[in-house]
Amino acid sequence: MDSIAPLPATTLRVSPSRGWIRTSLGLSLIFLFLPWQGWGLWIRPDATALLLIYWGIFEPTEMGAGRAFLLGLLSDVAQSHVLGIHALTYSTLFILVQYYRPRILSFYRLNQMLHVLMLLLLTQWLEGLVDGSLGYSWPNWSWWVIQPLLGALSWPFLPLLLERASRPAAPPQSP
Amino acid sequence: MSPLKSRPSDLFSQPTPLWLRSGIYGLIALTCILFDHHYHRLERVHQILRIWTLPFQELARVPLWTEREIGRHLTTLERLQAENNALRHELLGQAALVQQAPLLNRDLTRLRALMQLGSSPRFTGQVCRIIGSARNPFVQKVLLEGGESQGIRTGSPVLTDQGLMGQITRVYPDESEVTLISNRNLTIPVEIERTGLRTLAMGTGHQGELSLPYVPSETDVRVGDLLLTSGIDGLYPRGLTVATLTSVTHHPSSAFVEITARVNAGTDTYPDVLVMTSNTSFQNLRALDNPPLSPIHKKP
After folding, report:
1. Which of A149, B33, B37, B238 is buried most, with the most CB atoms less than 10 Å from its CB?
2. Global ipTM
3. Which residues, listed in sequence order, are joined to residue B279 by a DSSP beta bridge?
């Protein structure tokens, strides 16, 4: 019954270090820049957006919409895409995360997943709409759905990746 | 600092409301998009921010590099032999053509000299590897390893072994961006190989699909006809394979035929592409304009 156990509340968990938060965001950018080809392009989830949601919810003091904006700019430049598209989607996403944070924190893991799915879908759709309105072609239906879906499905595993790695060594046991 | 010195409003100060923040960031982002996409004024910003993303991109290339290195060590004997056999067969198939090539070339040069045309342009190419593409595959751009320092310039044509793939649209010091010919914003002057008819092929925005909107309805076109670059824009050299016609629809009410074509070069079939680095055809076109054509345009 692990799936219905709540994620650790902010007050009970050890806060990861600032360095780890930045490293993880850097890693998510690297994940994006990997040489994806063929079907890999269709299924790669937006790791940066996922981490923005995660850190936005659990470490709100470490993140800000400005940083989300900057990350978006970097990801645009690295993809050699029109400057500002991901800046727009990521800052919008982050502000939505801030707005829904208390609500998401009050839910258990499965319901959290649905909220994350909604946020990722909104990000993806905003990106597709902006791309489409700039004269690029409209993606087909699967692009609008598959990546956010996979991103939301990986939500329950994020604490395993992000919390374990950042946990400080256990204090020495008293004899 | 005594607490009295702090401004009293600090106690009640509120963070900037969400709607205001989203408005500000949205506005900045939309301004960026406008100035980059429509006015192309942010090239410098691209170059500067690129310096920041470069370390991440270098790291992301490690798996590719490892795969390449490991792959080189682990290639099996059978695979190599099979590949070698296939290549040898291919070579034999082209042998007759290749052996005739010097002769044909000499004839061509002589004929061109007789007709007072410029010599046919020579091209050099740079083999580059595809290293990435936009998160939205429908943007139809790919990134290549290799840029300004390898002699790649904006506008250079990009080929695969199957035909024309796209055009370089942005160059960084060590990387370059290719816009695929199926992109909605690209138009290529083409000729139909069978009849020599010249027309324009436009990207439709769908993966690997072109349309030919300006072919008059009485023209002889068939499904399966091959499209080659006509070279009249001076950008693409003449005779590169572009696409194969997949559908030809005659509308009784229209003066034009509705034609779609499938691009021969696929990006996902081959990781390496050829970028044509020195394109001299434009200068040749200029030179060609002067002596032979002027008498025709002169009034008696």
Report:
1. B33
2. 0.82
3. none
